[in-house]
Amino acid sequence: MENNRVNQAIEVLKSTGVRVTPQRYAILEYLLTSLGHPTADEIYRALEDKFPNMSVATVYNNLRVFKEAGMVRELTYGDASSRFDANMKEHYHVICRECGKIVDFEYPPLFQVEKEAEEKTGFRVETHRMEFYGVCNSCQKEKVV
Q1: Which family does the record assign (predicted)?
Q2: How does the average pLDDT of the chain come out, rounded?
């Protein structure tokens, strides 16, 4: 299943004229198979053994290419580092205030808020953003010990 997502993403890149290098493939594969929402530095550290000549700048440049192709979204939540999410389906995030872990969360009734906002204001709403903050299970357990 995951390999299929990677192959579909590669086809999207090729269709936009982007050349698929081994580094680009590895970054994309990491993003699509990662359950987290990694920073560029985390992606770099995960792949540096496999690609010792790759720089953090290469990772950033490829993330920009993926973002422009509509394959990833950049998440900015208060701290200085952007995180990247390859799940392009509409969803929300729950963020741990202790460790920064981000977990995807879907709740379809929240998307009715856009429709309600349009009806009440006359705007054509294009998107909305909502985050939930708390403390993840792991951090809760650490505090108990």
Answers
A1: Belongs to the Fur family.
A2: 88
